[in-house]
Specification:
The chain has helices spanning 14-26, 45-55, 63-67, 76-83, 86-94, 129-133, 212-221, 227-236; strands at 2-7, 31-34, 58-59, 100-104, 107-111, 150-153, 160-164, 167-171, 184-191, 202-208. By secondary structure, the chain is of the alpha/beta class. The protein has one domain (2-236): 4-Layer Sandwich (Purple Acid Phosphatase, chain A, domain 2), CATH 3.60.21.10. Helix 7 packs antiparallel against helix 8.
């Protein structure tokens, strides 16, 4: 049996990323896949890109990773994060692939950032059955034009696992900007990698405490834009765009 750590949505939060990488190392997991949003929101996008490049076997693009490379976007927050990256890191983010696809224990597995159709389509665990079921579909953006048996994604910063119609759907949550509890989140996929014969497999969600106040201190020292919203999310795990009822 082989174990793969799947991380997502680091968002420039280095104390959270360090805590997760240390936990992965303590578990003696050697393979790490990153499914996007290395940058933005937090103050250290440049360091996050460098650490992910050094630590992860496969990395795919997230929505922040895509639009940070589009100079037509004049949003001042996006511009601030873009200016920290430099030409080499921006080119790296621009060239990241859309999906990671492989067999594990006889189950065709697809990992993307948000949905098989788009980096910007957002599907929550409480959305309609048909919406969630559609995540197992494919599009021209995917490597293989077949339905997935296991589908994993990030983007919503909300970790969960659901099983239905002989398929498994999971979200890894967020390393650097979790929005359910104030701990970093990632997933461990265990099984026979690149094996098409049906064998046992498992998916585990892991929560990792980290030094939130250090992350906030780094954001303050960097004079980061959208600072108050970022601090609120880290301390409360409440999404800045949530509207009161």
């Amino acid at each position: 049996m082989e174990r793969i750590a799947i991380i997502s949505d680091i968002h420039g939060n280095i104390p959270a990323l360090q805590a997760v990488l240390e936990d992965i190392e303590e578990r003696q997991i050697s393979r790490i896949f990153c499914i996007g949003d290395l940058i933005g929101k937090g103050p250290n996008s440049d360091l996050a890109v460098d650490m992910i490049r050094n630590s992860c076997e496969f990395v795919i693009q997230g929505n922040w990773d895509k639009y940070i490379t589009e100079p037509s976007d004049e949003n001042p927050t996006v511009t601030w994060h873009r200016n920290k990256l430099g030409i080499d890191r921006l080119e790296y983010l621009r060239e990241l692939p859309f999906s990671i696809e492989f067999y594990v224990s006889g189950r065709f597995t697809r990992l993307v950032h948000a949905s098989p159709r788009s980096l910007f389509e957002r599907i929550q665990p409480g959305d309609s059955f048909d919406s969630r079921l559609s995540l197992f579909d494919h599009s021209d953006l995917c490597q293989h034009q077949v339905q997935a048996d296991i589908f994993g994604y990030g983007d919503i910063h909300n970790a969960y696992i659901q099983n239905f119609q002989n398929k498994t759907l999971f979200n890894v949550g967020s390393v650097g900007n979790p929005l359910e509890i104030t701990q970093a989140s990632y997933a461990i996929l265990e099984g026979q990698f690149d094996q098409r014969e049906s064998r046992p497999y498992s998916i585990q969600l892991v929560r990792v405490p980290y030094n939130i106040e250090l992350s906030i201190e780094q954001a303050i020292e960097a004079n980061m834009p959208s600072l108050e919203a970022y601090i609120l999310e880290l301390r409360t795990a409440e999404y800045r765009g949530k509207k009161s009822s």
